[in-house]
Amino acid sequence: MSEQNPKQNIIRFPLSRRERRQRLFDSKDARIRTTALLRMLCGWALVLGTAMFLIANYRIFTPTSLRTLGSYIAAGIRSHDGDITTINYENETFSDGALFESGLAYADSDALFLSRAGSMTTLRYSLGYSDPAVESSTNYVLVYDRGGVKAALVGSAGAVAELELESTILNGSIGRSGRFVLTTNEHGYRTAAAVYDTAGKEVFKYRASEYYIVSAVLSPDCNTLGILAFRQNGVTLESHVLFFDVSSGKQVSDTALTDALGVTLTYSENNAAIALCDTGLYHVTRRGTVDVLLELSSQDLIATASQGSTMAVAVRSYLNDARSDLYTVRNGSLHGPFALTEEPTALAVSNAGTAVLSASGVTVYNTSAEPQWHNDDAVGARRVLMTDDGTVFLLYNRNARIFTAHSERSEEVHADN
Asked: Is a pLDDT exceeding 90 seen at residue 192?
């Protein structure tokens, strides 16, 4: 019997990928052919899906986004038990701040910071402003230099628009869509208010030759600009509320508020706004009608706050044992007075209610001005902010602290207390 050659029992394995794939497709077993086809289709689907994901989300690979991811990782490593209710300022100081996303946007003269609870800084945007001010909307933060000429619109991934104006900025505001308004000390005019889109392009500008603009805000749909301004009429000051259509640039109405000095303007709806003056609260419509919601004296005004279509005002009280009275305006309707046993140092409003900061701490009221909870540990803050779910942010000199009804030392308060 002859000896067999060992090489005759060796089955040659294809070296190339194409040849191996072809053998699978040519297999006599239908199951193998089907599996090979499905494998190929899944592979191409994965490649196509990955390509589409990268195209749609290319911004996550920008340097800013990568730095943000790194800050998340670093903050997660640094975080420890007990710091989840605190936001420590990067430079241990701040000039202004506003709520943004689920955290806080704050600025000092060097930079704007977007931070979350636990001192997690997600963005640092360099400024170099002398007196920065911060306003926020759902997706954007407006930061500008009061008395300077620079401003920027910043998103969660970085700046989307940067401006350097020819005139100094007096104040600013931002609309829900990200459009924003800057009031300037215009050369050749008394003041001016300009509306910019999210790319920083000027879409409308009103130059006032006889008015001093106090407040300029956009309607909820960002299609109408409301301006509260004043001028001298003989020996008296007269405030005016002006409405402009942003797209056409046409003036819609000019309503005079006699013997009143304007303080601030807040939209209650697309066609009406609430004007706070030293003589009271006024509901002014685009048609030029005026309703006096509340009469007051400038000497009695203690504190005010506004957010969205809501405004809160605290005034001195001369009735019973109350130290002050709280009024709120929601959707154009006045509610109050609600007696406060202490004089507020600051107010905050949201869809959840009103937060009142006083010497004894912070007290949160619902939309019906019924007290909900009080925390006596929340003292000494410079500002108070409140989210739509009732969470309170207290801004101190070196950090911000977050309080809720479930925080340590938060106590439930009843209306009869």
From this structure: yes
Residue 353 belongs to a domain: yes
Domain membership of residue 198 (yes or no) is no
Nearest to 364 by CA among 316, 407, 333: 407
Q: What domain range is 377 assigned to?
A: 300-417
Query: How many domains does the chain contain in total?
Result: 1
pLDDT at 80 over 50: no
Please report whether residue 409 resides in a domain: yes
pTM, to two decimals: 0.80
pLDDT digit string (tens) for 3-59? 555 555 666 666 677 777 777 777 788 888 888 888 888 988 999 988 888 888 777
Q: How far apart are CA 191 and CA 182, in angstroms?
A: 11
Q: What is the pLDDT of residues 227-244, one digit of tens each?
A: 999 998 777 889 999 999
What whole-number distance in Å separates Cα of residue 98 and Cα of residue 275?
A: 22
Residues 193 and 164: their CA atoms lie apart, in Å, by 15
Q: Assign residue 349 the CATH number of its domain.
A: 2.130.10.10
In a domain, 56, yes or no: no
